[in-house]
Amino acid sequence: MTLLQEHPKYRLRRDKLVQTLLRKGIVVKPVLEAIGRIPRQLFIDSAFDARAYDDSPLPIGHGQTISQPYTVARQTELLCPQPGERILEVGTGSGYQAAVLLELGVKLYSIERLRPLHERARDTLRALGYTQMQLKCGDGTQGWRAYAPFDGIIVTAGAPVVPEDLISQLADGGRLIIPVGDDQGQQMLRIIRKGDEFIEEDHNTFKFVKLIGKKGWDAPGT
Questions:
Q1: pLDDT > 70: what percent of the chain?
Q2: Total count of domains within the chain
Q3: Residue 46: active-site member
Q4: What is the distance between the alpha carbons of residues 78 and 115, in angstroms, rounded to a whole number?
Q5: Domain presence at residue 56
Q6: Catalytic residue among 67, 94, 110, 168
Q7: Which of 47, 75, 40, 41 shows the shortest CA–CA distance to 61?
């Protein structure tokens, strides 16, 4: 990443955020180091600049949010991405989770259904110097078969069920991280493919915006 010139206050705020995540149980050093490098203020509207390093979600427009840093860190820990792995992200959103994954050295494929968010995230990630990525605007609930199989798939919105298309696009040994439930809350699932077997783990309750798409929730008003 090529870090743009920034005020030293952001470095201090990032350090405090990393300490907060440590206290909350995030222990994987590369994940903490990635979060400690990424300028989160560039992924949100300037009106929320003072809250850029709060451990809380923030609105990014179009009814969407940038996830709480703890949630980003926890999903990344569960995914356990390794340098060079092929990772699919469903729901680019602000691009912040994508930046964390790119900092960890993966080859990232990310899908966002809302074009304004897709374009903003693309421009922000490019401005920061990231290149190991393919981004597109589309329905992420159907995955991205052209680049499958994936070593990992991470879903950043709450699904009513686990989309079969995503399961089928996992490589052997691949991990799918997905919150599944209703609009009151979702269980964070990790599904690991072992040949033709899929091992499901439950990792506590979170709350995300709805995963909209053919294999997710219907769009509002439809």
A1: 97
A2: 1
A3: no
A4: 28
A5: yes
A6: 67
A7: 47
